[in-house]
UniProtKB/TrEMBL annotation:
Signal peptide: none annotated. The keyword Transcription regulation applies. Keywords: Sigma factor, Transcription, Transcription regulation. One of its GO terms (molecular function) is sigma factor activity. This is RNA polymerase sigma-70 factor. Residues 112-162 form the RNA polymerase sigma factor 70 region 4 type domain. SUPFAM superfamilies: Sigma2 domain of RNA polymerase sigma factors, Sigma3 and sigma4 domains of RNA polymerase sigma factors.
């Protein structure tokens, strides 16, 4: 069955089609949920909530643009919804925040370690870092998604980068027997 037919079947609440769509995209969308969740269990909840929204809104998809992109937007928005009502963001008014580039020596840390320390960032820093660095959103888009101002987005990204650099430097300075 083609993806287009699968989507059309989902629009009629066909549970077999919904199950097939879930099997087809749940892995990629769960990876997205992990980036925007505090832990594995929250990511599972976000994935479930995202698919409920997807199935409730699938009739709105008109086969224009990437279906996977549409799914990902819903998934990101579902995960971010948990944070919108919480006061996880400090409002800052900094007009001259530098958008510094961070160079990471990939031979010094594993990708698993890097993902682990990103996951451990405080919510406000992790969300902005993931949206900007991993998913390519602009600060203006992030501000809109998270109901914060552009300066707050830039400040939180800069702080996330500082924390990551400090954590990596401390990791590299440990004796080899203590590293992961």
């Amino acid at each position: 069955m083609s993806l287009k037919q699968l989507i059309e079947n989902c629009k009629t609440n066909d549970t077999k089609a919904q199950s097939e769509l879930y099997k087809l995209f749940s892995g990629k969308l769960f990876a997205t949920c992990l980036k925007y969740s505090r832990n594995y269990a929250e990511a599972e909840d976000n994935l479930q909530d995202a698919f409920l929204t997807i199935f409730n809104k699938i009739e709105q998809y008109k086969h224009k643009g990437s279906f996977e992109g549409w799914l990902k937007r819903i998934t990101v928005n579902t995960a971010l919804q948990r944070y919108r009502n919480e006061k996880v963001f400090d409002i800052v008014n900094e007009n001259n925040i530098e958008d510094e580039q961070v160079e990471i020596d990939e031979s010094a840390v594993s990708i698993d370690y890097l993902l682990k320390i990103i996951q451990e960032l405080p919510d406000r820093y992790r969300l902005v870092f993931n949206l900007y660095v991993l998913d390519g959103y602009s600060h203006k888009e992030i501000a809109g998604l998270l109901n914060i101002n552009v300066g707050t987005s830039k400040s939180n990204l800069a702080r996330a980068r500082q924390i990551l650099i400090q954590t990596i430097e401390a990791y590299k300075a440990r004796p080899q027997s203590q590293t992961l």
